[in-house]
Input
Amino acid sequence: MASLATPAQLAAFLQQPLANDDASALLMLSIASDMVRDFLQLALDMTTDDVVYVDPIGGTTVVLPELPVIAVSKLETFDGTVWTTIDPANYTVSRRMGMISANPNTGLHWPFAPESWRVTYTHGYAAIPNSIVGVVLGAAARAYSSPAGIDSERIGGYQVKYGMEADGFSAIERKALARYVNPRIA
Output
């Protein structure tokens, strides 16, 4: 996956020149981007017409793996023999929660089997929110400026201070990411 920030943005953040092909900057941005994706448990990048096979919960609800959900273009169910396209009037989509629920009293048989619902949907951000980019830049800048992660070191009585938290994010960065955390796992 592409980095969530660019070397030019990192250069502006660090207030120092960086080449767009700076290998260290590219690596730090890639690592910081993956750290954010891992923390949020989301890919974040806009993906159009992604096709996923999902397991129904109680035969009437499925949870889509990626947020935010922009649109569901097709829902199909498998009865063991054929795939059937379901009319959108027969289900509701919670874009915020990434869930599809069968409407009651439709007369449809909703399958229970694993991966018996196939969903085509669009998800992610067309433009990554600035607060997410800021967290990526902060983590990348710390790693770029101090590859060992050391903020300070004293020789007399030997003391080392490491700058990163255990998960690689400061308290303010975790707070910035909190609004994007998948609500189903928070």
About this structure: The chain has a mean pLDDT of 91.
